[in-house]
Recover the amino acids of this structure.
C-alpha cells in the first residue's frame, strides 16, 4: 500500500517526543525555502498524538497562505491505507460540529 509514496521525500516525527509547534515551524521553514507539488501526512488512525500532524499541516498552510500545493492526509487503519479529505481533518478539530453531525445522522449510541 505504501508503494504509491515512491519518489516522495519522507520525514518522520513523533509528537510524543517533539512539540507540535516546533514541528510546525520546521515544516514552515522547509515549505518557505523549497517548492513542492504536494505535501502529505501519514499517521496511525486513532492516535491522539498523531492526529496533531494533520492539524499542523493544515494550520501551516493557512498561516503561510500557501496556494498551488496539494495537501493530502493518510491514515493506516486496521492494516489499510485510507486517504482522508481536508474537510474531515478540519471537522475533527471541532468536537461540537462532530457531535451535531453524528446526532443528525443517528450515529450516537
Amino acid at each position: 500500500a505504501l508503494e504509491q509514496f515512491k519518489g516522495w521525500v519522507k520525514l518522520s516525527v513523533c509528537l510524543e517526543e517533539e512539540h507540535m509547534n516546533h514541528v510546525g515551524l520546521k515544516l514552515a521553514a522547509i515549505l518557505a525555502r523549497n517548492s513542492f507539488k504536494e505535501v502529505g501526512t501519514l499517521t496511525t488512525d486513532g492516535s491522539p498524538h498523531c492526529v496533531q500532524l494533520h492539524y499542523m499541516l493544515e494550520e501551516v498552510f493557512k498561516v503561510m497562505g500557501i496556494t498551488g500545493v496539494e495537501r493530502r492526509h493518510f491514515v493506516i487503519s486496521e492494516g489499510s491505507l485510507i486517504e482522508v479529505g481536508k474537510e474531515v481533518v478540519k471537522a475533527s478539530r471541532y468536537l461540537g460540529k462532530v457531535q451535531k453531525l453524528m446526532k443528525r445522522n443517528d450515529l450516537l449510541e
The longest strand covers residues 70-77. The mean pLDDT is 94.
